[in-house]
Amino acid sequence: MNSETELAPAVKSILAAARERSGGEGVVNVDARSISDALARAEADGRVPVIAEVKPTSPTADGTRTDDPVELAEAMVEGGAAAISVLTEPTHFGGSPEALTRIREAVDVPVLRKDFVLDEAGMDVVAADLLLVIARFVDDLSELVAAARDRGFQPLVEVHDRDELEDALEAGAEIIGVNNRDLAKLEVDLETFESVAPHAPDDVTVIAESGISSPVDARRMREAGADALLVGSAIMDHGADESDVTENTRRLTRAETAESTTETETT
To answer: What is an example of a Pfam family matching this protein (predicted)?
Structure first.
């Protein structure tokens, strides 16, 4: 694990809470829904592959959404989401493993468990199709990636720079998320993905994470090589309880179609 001196106080607090949480009572075994198949279906259908995130709140959110998480997930799928990400971290993000279980039972797309998993015990909490592993927070990335696969999870390894990308590749990661949010200042810069993603091999699925708030952002990340987009706050719209989650998702999944339509209308 890299030095915590470079982390924002909110991130240090999240990690401290993660260390205090216990794992499950036994080893989780998963019969996972294929994320590669889900992304391919979205592409074939003319949709931007979006992993829409059920995130009640966060340290960087403007508010909290109290909607039923299953209803939110179903609305995201209706809007064209290729997969669903569910925050299970309770203290800072208002999530829960129970919400993930309910969502996975209700939708037919892959479900990512997004949490701060630091060791094998942290994996054995709830079944999901994908499991987030943040490279910066893990002591032995290869071991954790292998342990995730042994349980049936598809590990999504999150990186923030070129060095972490190399670590992820050496650990055998096949699905890599490039997070545009800096963990020291919590600032977002889409150039992060643009500078890191081109160095990933073609046979690796690369996902752009954080800071994607509009169709313009979605197209920018796709042009930079994103196979999929992980979007939370722009879809949840924490500042507006009545925001249409289906429409927020649809705006992003149809970003490329909208661009094509605009170009046609202006020529």
So the answer is: IGPS
